[in-house]
Design goal:
- Two copies of one chain form a homodimer.
- Helices cover 30% and strands 19% of the residues of chain A.
- Chain A is an alpha/beta fold and 273 residues long.
- The first copy, chain A, folds into two domains: 6-106, 60s Ribosomal Protein L30, Chain: A, CATH 3.30.1330.30; 113-271, Alpha/beta knot.
- Chain A has a six-stranded parallel beta sheet with strand order 8-7-6-10-9-11, with helices on both faces. Chain A has a five-stranded mixed beta sheet with strand order 1-4-3-5-2.
- In chain A, strand 3, helix 3 (65-73) and strand 4 form a beta-alpha-beta unit.
- In chain A, helix 5 packs parallel to helix 9.
- The interface between A and B is medium-sized, with 26 and 26 residues.
Amino acid sequence: MSASPAITIDDPADPRLAPYASIRERDLVGRRGRFIVEGEVTLRLMLSPASRFRVESILLSPERLPGLGDLIETMPAPPPVYCASRAVMGAVAGFPMHRGVLAVGLSGAPPEPAGLIPPAPAPATVLGLVGLTNHDNVGGLFRNAAAFGADAVLLDDATCDPLYRKAIRVSAGAALTVPFARTASPQALLDLAARHDLVSLAMTPGTEADIADIALPARALVLLGSEGPGLPPDLMAHCQRIRIGMAAGFDSLNVATAGAIALHHLLRRRCRL
Amino acid sequence: MSASPAITIDDPADPRLAPYASIRERDLVGRRGRFIVEGEVTLRLMLSPASRFRVESILLSPERLPGLGDLIETMPAPPPVYCASRAVMGAVAGFPMHRGVLAVGLSGAPPEPAGLIPPAPAPATVLGLVGLTNHDNVGGLFRNAAAFGADAVLLDDATCDPLYRKAIRVSAGAALTVPFARTASPQALLDLAARHDLVSLAMTPGTEADIADIALPARALVLLGSEGPGLPPDLMAHCQRIRIGMAAGFDSLNVATAGAIALHHLLRRRCRL
């Protein structure tokens, strides 16, 4: 058995811990190509082949080292593992680190949106997010995309970053595994769908067609907008508009929940092909 | 037009504002029969006939008074309305009050669980929550219960309070409108279901029966447990176990999302009766 690969650090000001400094404040300004992962489940996912992201470094408290250090040691090219007490971790991060597991990932070059769409005529389910600025909702939608086997998530220019710390956490790590890319505008999403034989479905309470009643296409781009304003009307004018049937007098669902129901129906349709 | 009913208060220590003091700290210890409502949408809901809760008092910033004061004035027996600057509101509450709308509701006597179940042989959809301690999830489940027309929500002894401030907010106010009651234990939930001709459905990934394939009962208690441990096996042994079909290799959904999908299927079934 080889020696533990971990490097013990006692000084919160050690420059190797700089990417972990003032985590919440840095969340707000962004990290230019880096992102923070918290907790064992998400770290294991980022170290697995399911994740396309490179791990720059890992920071563990001594209690977490036995469980995770062994895993990391068996990797062909393991990233540096730093070990610091929870007190030092908390001093660096700026808040208490109860879980004692942090890592820095590298975003890498963003993929081309077109490359994430399965080529026709194969079935395809792509989620399109328009103007979603709430990290919980975006994280929840990635979790649901993974649960119901969406091939990719495409984001318009106004939707927030799925690699934001809280979005990764709410996604249960799915933001690291479900392929995603950004388009220049909501219209660019529609153009891309048209070029790749995807039917654009706009989820909206303001229509008669119920997702549980209509024939769903084998290749679909499911578009979701934010809860208040919804999808822009000029965008919906070029889509098949679909609602989720609700109790009388109620037309309000959380957007991640609406996405889950739409993706569940599309997965059912796909399983019957 | 009558004079404005609002009572202007400039002193954060005014005893009439005591129920609004240190809101976050008081969230943790509970309020013994009182709860806090934030924001205009939720306050309007609490003042409407859809809510069964009495409003003890309302606290508005001066800018919110014209829009809401008029509504309150037309009520037959309006609660006291206090008006304070956002600075005073923030000083009382302990954090900035951007929305400038707060109210104190009275929980009243808890209803009998049995009284919330529609009598047989009418269709009935009741949600049963077991060991759910996350306020976001409980709030989300109330929102979904309202969206998909559940008749009631029954909570076991370990599930958290739907009238907790954050649960009300996440529920979009549905915690004030969907009837709920608490039972002494998970087993008491099952006993109640049996006495009222409800089929107990346990949502769990560990079974073959897919909710989209099976014949659903017209009278159902849908049981949901927390995301990690799920429902207790000895409880599930007395239930019909049902799963939500997911992509291969994935068996994880947020519990509020799982509830939405189950309730959506039950509403569809009920609409076809």
